[in-house]
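Hypothesis: this fold can be encoded by more than one sequence.
Test: take the structure tokens below, design a sequence, compare later.
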């Protein structure tokens, strides 16, 4: 798992690779400078002069270039001279720079590989929809905004998923988000202030259980682990060895019945107590074995 750090804002030149050969991160000279910020406001002008004619001229020039590029690419392709990317780049619309903002846990290498500039060397052939899908397949990426910045820049803003819990499995532990999606491995003994769940089927059901426990801070604040058994029901493990066996259905109702019995609910703070709430009509509380022997 990557170390928690500041959100990365990276910009690098997107040097064009030879056709039919993959682009590797090693071919990129990374420049960790100021990334493009689409929300940045323009600097105030010193006067109120209107630049509309010049701006219209630039627009017309740009349209002329685009139309000329399209026509030229069509005829060039028919004659086998230049392909669309080469011709578009010739007119100044190649992908010369890529900026990334918003990512913390996803590496630049993963994002660059998902960008896949080996198949698109200019803004004319760049497929934003396909690129977005590749980005969103990465574990941490929740969504991505891709903007073309003419003439030759891509501005990419990443929104990452938030860690919600730790899912302990027989072969290791993983961070998961609120939907149960695995975000990546984590050391089993890592000190992370997140709830822990275990067992098959625990990952997609964790959010629903923890939402119920939010109503009972006396239980949730002592929660060590929630274990899913046979993907049917939960057992809550609390500090002091306290265990609460929940039914397969109606966890919220079962905990409400426990909370409605002040004497029984107070035992949640007593080490070693075992609660069985699987019966719809009664609450079974078993004291620690040592306490039973001492009283007996």
């Amino acid at each position: 798992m990557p170390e928690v750090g500041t959100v990365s804002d990276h910009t690098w030149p997107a040097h064009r690779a030879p056709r039919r050969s993959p682009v590797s991160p090693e071919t990129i000279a990374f420049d960790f400078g100021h990334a493009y910020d689409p929300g940045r406001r323009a600097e105030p002008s010193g006067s109120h002069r209107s630049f509309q004619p010049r701006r219209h001229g630039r627009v017309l020039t740009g349209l002329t270039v685009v139309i000329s590029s399209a026509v030229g690419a069509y005829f060039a392709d028919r004659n086998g001279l230049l392909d669309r990317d080469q011709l578009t780049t010739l007119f100044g619309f190649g992908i010369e720079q890529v900026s990334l903002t918003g990512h913390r846990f996803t590496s630049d290498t993963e994002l660059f590989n998902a960008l896949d500039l080996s198949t698109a060397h200019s803004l004319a052939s760049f497929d934003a929809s396909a690129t977005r899908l590749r980005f969103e397949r990465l574990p941490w990426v929740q969504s991505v905004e891709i903007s073309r910045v003419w003439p030759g820049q891509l501005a990419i803003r990443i929104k990452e998923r938030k860690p919600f819990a730790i899912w302990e499995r027989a072969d290791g532990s993983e961070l998961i988000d609120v939907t149960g999606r695995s975000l990546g491995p984590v050391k089993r003994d890592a000190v992370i202030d997140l709830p822990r769940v275990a067992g098959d089927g625990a990952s997609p059901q964790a959010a629903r259980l923890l939402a119920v426990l939010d109503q009972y801070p006396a239980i949730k604040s002592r929660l060590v682990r929630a274990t899913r058994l046979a993907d049917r029901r939960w057992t809550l493990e609390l500090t002091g060895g306290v265990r609460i066996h929940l039914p397969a259905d109606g966890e919220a109702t079962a905990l409400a019945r426990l909370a409605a019995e002040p004497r029984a609910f107070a035992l949640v703070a007593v080490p070693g107590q075992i609660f069985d709430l699987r019966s719809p009509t009664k609450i079974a509380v078993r004291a620690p074995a040592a306490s039973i022997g001492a009283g007996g």
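The chain has two domains: 8-37+55-160, 165-295. The first strand starts at residue 8 and ends at 13.
Hypothesis status: open.
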